[in-house]
Design brief:
Elements lengths: L4 H10 L5 E5 L2 E6 L2 E7 L2 E4 L3 H7 L18
Antiparallel strand pairs: 1-2, 2-3, 3-4
Length: about 80
């Protein structure tokens, strides 16, 4: 399944200067100094957070760990 192009257009309009956009995990990743900060996978916005922040965010409605391999990513 391809990633959401409408979501990409919205993020592109808001993305910080200095970010680099790269195809990753079947979607798009936005990199800062070579490290992914956020991205798009299918219809989902993917955020890279610290483990403590991620533990709090996944408690929110609609949020879940990023898992495309059967092993959720940390943070």
């Amino acid at each position: 399944m391809p990633y959401n192009k409408k979501l990409e257009a919205k993020i592109d309009a808001l993305a910080a200067a200095g970010s680099e956009k790269r195809r990753m995990f079947g979607g798009i990743g936005y990199l800062f100094n070579g490290n992914m900060g956020f991205g798009i996978h299918r219809d989902f916005l993917v955020l890279r957070l610290g483990e403590e922040s991620a533990a709090q965010i996944v408690k929110e409605k609609g949020a879940r760990p990023f898992d495309i391999t059967g092993r959720p990513m940390k943070g």
